[in-house]
């Protein structure tokens, strides 16, 4: 583990950055913005799953792909996944492509979401089946949710739905959980019985580079072990909300009008 005494940023410095950039005016361009369009938690979690699953590649293409999917789902994405047959899903999304994700990947994701919601009532209720207060992180509950989402397609490989138990950072899944669990002017929340303290940092190359510069990790692999090391470092600074600064730190790589000099 990283020696947290060597971390080269203070909570005060991160709070200053938080005060500058933690606001909805800084969200665009980010797939998170689609969640603001839905008032119902049951719709928002389906939108969050779709938006986070497609959150890889160029941001302009991400927004285009998410928008194209949601436009076909009508005003209630949760109703759509609950009532759509396999044939309807396949017909609706025929020809879909997002980088190396295909219509089959998308259909299997939505089929899984519909199956989970039909059986448990919501993605949240499924997640809570495996969530326990004694657990240190959300990892176990996330593994259970993903396994249930995969059941409807027989556990087939899916570029939109990685296996958390295999040790990858699963950045997109942890981004989804950040959106669902944290609740403030940026993250819409709704999963109120899940403690933000248990969240794991959504780790990508940009976040890993920043955290390496801040001496939160010396690891080179962008895997779960590195994500956990960085998460524990943030817990030293913000014990009850270690993912609090994820949004503002990623603005430095997404928004051209954000100044990296505000931190470094």
Taken as a percent bin, the fraction of beta residues is: under 5%
What is the residue-averaged pLDDT?
Answer: 94
Q: What is the H-and-E element order?
A: HHHHHEEHHHHHHH
Q: How far apart are the first and last residues' alpha carbons, in Å?
A: 23 Å
Short summary:
50% of the residues lie in helices and 2% in strands.
Topology:
Elements: H1 11-21, H2 41-53, H3 59-71, H4 77-83, H5 86-92, E1 97-98, E2 101-102, H6 103-120, H7 123-130, H8 139-151, H9 171-181, H10 205-213, H11 224-237, H12 246-254
Antiparallel strand pairs: 1-2
Can you tell me about this structure?
The chain has 264 residues and is mainly α. The chain has twelve helices and two strands, in the order αααααββααααααα. It has helices at 11-21, 41-53, 59-71, 77-83, 86-92, 103-120, 123-130, 139-151, 171-181, 205-213, 224-237, 246-254; strands at residues 97-98, 101-102.
Features:
single chain; two-stranded antiparallel sheet; 264 residues; 12 helices; mainly alpha
């Amino acid at each position: 583990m990283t020696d947290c005494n060597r971390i080269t940023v203070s909570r005060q410095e991160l709070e200053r950055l938080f005060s500058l950039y933690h606001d909805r005016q800084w969200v665009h361009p980010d797939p998170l913005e689609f969640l603001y369009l839905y008032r119902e938690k049951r719709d928002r979690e389906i939108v969050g799953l779709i938006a986070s699953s497609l959150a890889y590649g160029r941001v302009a293409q991400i927004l285009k792909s998410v928008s194209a999917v949601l436009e076909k789902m009508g005003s209630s994405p949760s109703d759509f996944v609950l009532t759509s047959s396999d044939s309807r899903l396949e017909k609706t999304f025929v020809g879909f492509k997002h980088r190396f994700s295909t219509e089959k990947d998308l259909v299997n994701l939505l089929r899984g979401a519909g199956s989970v919601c039909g059986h448990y009532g919501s993605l949240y209720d499924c997640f809570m089946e495996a969530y326990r207060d004694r657990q240190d992180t959300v990892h176990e509950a996330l593994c259970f949710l993903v396994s249930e989402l995969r059941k409807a397609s027989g556990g087939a490989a899916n570029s939109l739905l990685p296996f958390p138990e295999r040790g990858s950072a699963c950045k997109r899944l942890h981004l989804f959980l950040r959106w669902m669990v944290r609740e403030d002017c940026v993250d819409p929340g709704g999963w109120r019985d899940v403690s933000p303290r248990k969240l794991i940092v959504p780790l990508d190359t940009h976040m890993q580079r920043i955290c390496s510069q801040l001496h939160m990790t010396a690891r080179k692999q962008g895997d779960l072990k590195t994500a956990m090391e960085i998460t524990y470092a943030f817990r030293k600074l913000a014990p009850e909300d270690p993912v609090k600064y994820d949004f503002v730190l990623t603005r430095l790589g997404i928004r051209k009008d954000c100044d990296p000099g505000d931190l470094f």
